Amino acid sequence: MSGKPKLHYFNGRGRMEPIRWLLAAAGVEFEECFLETKDDLTKLQKDGSLLFQQVPMVEIDGMKMVQTRAILNYIATKYNLYGKDLKERALIDMYVEAAMDLNELLMTHPFQPADKKEEHFATMLDKATNRYFPVYEKVLKDHGQDFLVGNRFSRVDVQLLEILLMAEEFKPDILAKFPLLQSFKARISNIPTIKKFLQPGSQRKSLPQEKDVSKVMKIFY
């Protein structure tokens, strides 16, 4: 049996993508088992692999872990990406939770009904540029360090970079008013493990297209 973590999800971003990012940033190789049909999901549900009957699910260290945040917390702790003490962890958690809120907006945009997409897009950009990005810009300005917490690479740097790049896919100049976030993006993108993950042919997934949306809907609904 391979010692690599095994990721069970559809062949796309969704809630598994932050997990892929964090494993890649930690330099951990992983395998993927893609759900192609609704039957694939039903099989996992019936054989008891999914504690709450839903994916993502990650097989790691003899466990079948579900719930995205629980999986991310475990990986971050295991690979020393969760701060040096309780206070740093609290900061990381606050910044990550906000990032995950924004990620939810970005991730779900391709799945919005046609008559809701324009409104959703406006909300998404408004919250990114007026609620979330100004906070991270201020954090970087106030402490003047390379990383968001403790001047040490942590999970929040990984997850924020993922979101910055995703936001730029929707609006290429979205970081125009945030010079420190632009520098942060360049700096974190050059960390060797992340640079490797950003190369073509990696296990990073692309922005969903209409055909991908249709396939996912058939698996889950």
From TrEMBL:
Protein name as annotated = glutathione transferase
**What SUPFAM superfamilies does the record tag this protein with?**
GST C-terminal domain-like, Thioredoxin-like
Q: Per the UniProt entry, what is one GO biological process?
A: xenobiotic metabolic process
User: What InterPro entries does its record include?
Assistant: Glutathione-S-Trfase_C-like, Glutathione-S-Trfase_C_sf, Glutathione_S-Trfase, Glutathione_S-Trfase_N, GST_alpha, GST_C, GST_superfamily, Thioredoxin-like_sf
Q: Name one GO molecular function term.
A: glutathione transferase activity
Domain of life assignment: Eukaryota
Q: Does the keyword Flavoprotein apply?
A: no
Keyword terms of this UniProt record: Transferase
> What family does the entry list?
Belongs to the GST superfamily. Alpha family.
Organism per entry? Chunga burmeisteri (Black-legged seriema)
**The keyword Cell membrane is annotated on this UniProt entry:** no
Q: What is its EC number?
A: 2.5.1.18
What positions does the domain GST N-terminal occupy?
A: 3-83
GST C-terminal domain location is 85-209
